[in-house]
Amino acid sequence: MNNRRRKLLKGSSGAAVMALAASAGLFRPGSAWAQAWNKAAFEAKTFNDLLKSMGAGASSESKDVVINSPDIAENGAVVPFTISSRLAKTEAMALLVEKNPNVLVGSYAIPGGTEANVTMRAKMGQTSNVIALVKADGKYYHAIKEVKVTIGGCGG
Amino acid sequence: MADPMRIRATMAGDKVEVRVLMSHEMETGQRKDAKGNLVPAHYIQNVTATHNGKVVLTAEWGPAISKNPFLSFKFGGGKAGEKVVVTWTDNKGDKRTDEATIS
Known about the structure:
heterodimer; A: alpha+beta; Immunoglobulin-like; 2 domains; 6-stranded mixed sheet; 3-stranded antiparallel sheet; 9 strands; 26% helix; B: mainly beta; 50% strand
């Protein structure tokens, strides 16, 4: 009888430890932030890798996607960009700098009612092609523009 | 806790124009300090803007966004006197939420 009680205690404490471990695993600091952050996309080194990481097959160039930025940026640490789309049902937009260590600068989800027009400032290591990627009605479109940089923004 | 954001929300026709200036170092993780050690990356990853509890913009950012990030966008359906709330979260789990009244 006594022996059995011991066993039961052992078993239940073991289960408690398991439950603790499971909850600790579930609430790791990385996943504690409810919002999604597409790690693979931010680690992509090329435009094609990025398309893959976003689950996009291909993207076609479109005149309805517009990048507004200076043609020559004097300071690569702060280059202002406005990306906009005239495509109907624009759901998401992203800005890429092809020659940065990781191409993706930032991506935006555009809910209905919000204009497909976002302004930000980005760092550019060197003169590079800049790509605005737009997802509209389930399809991907992009525009490319070259921006010349006289002083790089990456490195010390 | 980081410094407060500066948020301006103004009516532009029938849309609300929101301009946000955040205070964040946006360290890329590629830079070295004077001793040649890598400075660890520290940058904002998620930005969410809401109006009356409805999300009007979400952003995912990488370290290539400039230091002290600026963000501007427009949304419809807002009126003067209502509030716009902006929240960011960085890769170290720091968070900051600020709000502005539409004028």
